[in-house]
Amino acid sequence: MKFFHKPNQAESDRVPPGQHLAKGFPVLTYGETPQVNIEEWEFRVWGLAKPVTFKMSDFLALPQHEFTADFHCVTSWSKLDVKWNGIKVTDFMSLLAIDPKAAHVMEHCYGGYTTNIDLQDFVREENFFAVKLFGEPLPPEHGGPMRLVVPHLYAWKSAKWINGLEFLEEEELGFWERNGYHRRGEPWANERYSNLGF
Length: 198
Description:
There is one protein chain. This protein has helices at residues 56-60, 89-93, 119-122, 175-178, and strands at residues 4-5, 20-22, 42-47, 52-55, 65-73, 77-88, 104-109, 114-118, 128-133, 136-137, 147-149, 162-168. By secondary structure, the chain is mainly beta. Helix content is 9%, strand content 33%. It is built from four helices and twelve strands; from the N terminus they run ββββαββαββαββββα. The strands form two sheets. Strands 1, 2, 5, 6, 9, 10 and 11 form a seven-stranded mixed beta sheet that branches. A five-stranded mixed beta sheet has the order 4-3-12-7-8.
């Protein structure tokens, strides 16, 4: 059985260059999958922002929405029409006091993973913190209890097991960015790897 297939004509305008469609929803993880007790889960904000720590109940008190978004992995597979439930990044940002000098964000996660994102790419109406996948609580292998989803960038920017945001004036590189991946990761521009000579 083939796990990937080429998009048909109706799907082709939704699939970026070099991508194939996945029949399932593959799981790719570097290192062990964190197992986080939801009662002990915390989410910190710091850097060029007023420091604050949130519990899961704080996120769930915000408006929740259904999202359907295409998902593009840098390893050349895509999955169309993934159905999530979660909280808009823009709603969460309304709770924060951000220094006007902040221009970049470092996403921090349980397990030590980090990835950087430009503030303008982060604060977009279509971005969200996901707590459900296809109507079920987000499983640990897909980033549960909560992950970020940034549909317009490759999926390594949609950090699994996210537990903090560090707001920065200057760009700093996250884990994969330090190891040769592109700083931004825009699928339609095929921004897979760095041009910095790593």
